[in-house]
Design brief:
Helix content is 47%, strand content 21%. The chain is rod-shaped and about 135 Å long. The protein starts with a helix and ends with a strand. β1 and β2 (23-30) form a beta hairpin. It has helices at residues 3-11, 60-68, 73-92, 138-141, 154-227, 243-255, 280-293, and strands spanning 16-19, 23-30, 33-34, 40-42, 45-51, 97-99, 103-108, 111-116, 131-132, 233-240, 261-262, 270-277, 300-303. It has a 4-stranded antiparallel beta sheet with strand order 11-12-10-13. The protein is α+β, with helices and mostly antiparallel strands. α2 packs across α3 (73-92).
């Protein structure tokens, strides 16, 4: 697995790939053109350039490696960082870095210099070399009047040559168009994958935010609960061995307006509290009142420790 290969692969679908702390590789396409003397037709070609001033990554290379290199984002960043550190050390020691189908990187006067591989058939380069159109021999141009009807005129040869040039000029743009359509499809595929990755990260971030919010709310509720006064002293109206009897008394006391509750079981008995207080003196004062109005209950004071 090589960073150089990933750079080349990204350039198949992107016009620019930035390597963090190194620079940007830029792909530019030249269309087919006719030479100044109109006797040579040059096929379309791709020019690879390098800009060492662009050192801040736009994330394209990292996303591509995550999707195709089976690395997570943290591993990808370390993978690229290690590559750049090692590359700079080797270049400073006089070595060169050859990137297949792209060119050569080297260090000159403390500056990175990139020399493109002009012979590469990278991306849009066709396998064709320039096409030379040879002029007709002079002896064929000079025709005698009496032989004019026996062989094709010079106008026919010029017409054929012109037709060949026109066909070639039409073929190259069509090839460019088809290649551009393929590039656009690849770009859209990568863009879609990036959008899916962004949506995935956003969903994960939202889940984490929701969990954090829920944890904070739970913490606040716990703090509120801790701030409530501890009602330790309970006036017990009855103790039972069965929960059914305890529930019956609780309902009866609630109907009379008491804040009746069933206390946690301690031993064999289930206690029913009529009302509870934070301080003993408050509970004892209330017991005197209840004894006057509720003589039927054998009440007593129970302290939860």
């Amino acid at each position: 697995m090589s960073v150089n290969k990933f750079i080349k692969d990204v350039l198949y679908t992107r016009e620019r790939v930035i390597v963090q702390d190194l620079g940007a590789f830029i792909r530019q396409t030249e269309l087919a053109k006719v030479g100044e003397n109109k006797d040579v037709i040059f096929p379309p070609k791709t020019i690879i350039q390098f800009d060492s001033s662009e050192k801040i990554s736009d994330g394209v290379l990292e996303n591509f490696i995550v999707q195709n290199g089976k690395l997570n984002p943290e591993q990808t960043q370390k993978f690229i960082s290690d590559y750049v550190v090692d590359l700079k050390n080797r270049l400073q020691n006089g070595e060169i870095e050859e990137i297949e189908h792209l060119g050569v990187l080297k260090m000159e006067s403390e500056a990175l210099v990139f020399t493109a591989d002009v012979d590469s058939s990278f991306v849009l380069n066709t396998a064709l070399s320039e096409l030379k159109v040879n002029p007709l021999p002079e002896q064929e141009i000079v025709a005698q009047t009496e032989n004019t009807s026996k062989r094709p005129s010079i106008g026919i040869w010029i017409g054929i040559a012109a037709a060949v040039i026109i066909v070639l000029l039409l073929v190259f743009p069509v090839r460019n168009y088809l290649n551009q359509q393929k590039l656009n499809a690849e770009k859209e595929k990568i863009a879609q994958a990036e959008r899916q990755e962004e949506a995935k990260l956003e969903a994960q971030a939202k889940r984490e935010a929701d969990l954090e919010k829920a944890a904070l709310e739970a913490q606040k509720e716990k703090e509120k609960e801790n701030e409530k006064p501890k009602l330790r002293f309970h006036i017990v109206a009855g103790s039972f061995k069965t929960m059914a009897n305890a529930e019956t008394l609780k309902v009866e006391l609630t109907k009379k307006g008491y804040s009746a509750i069933i206390l946690p079981q301690d031993g064999d008995l289930i206690r029913v509290s009529m009302v509870a207080f934070e301080k003993r003196k408050q509970a004892e004062k209330e017991m005197k009142k209840i004894n006057l109005s509720e003589a039927k209950y054998d009440i007593w004071l129970y302290e939860i420790k």
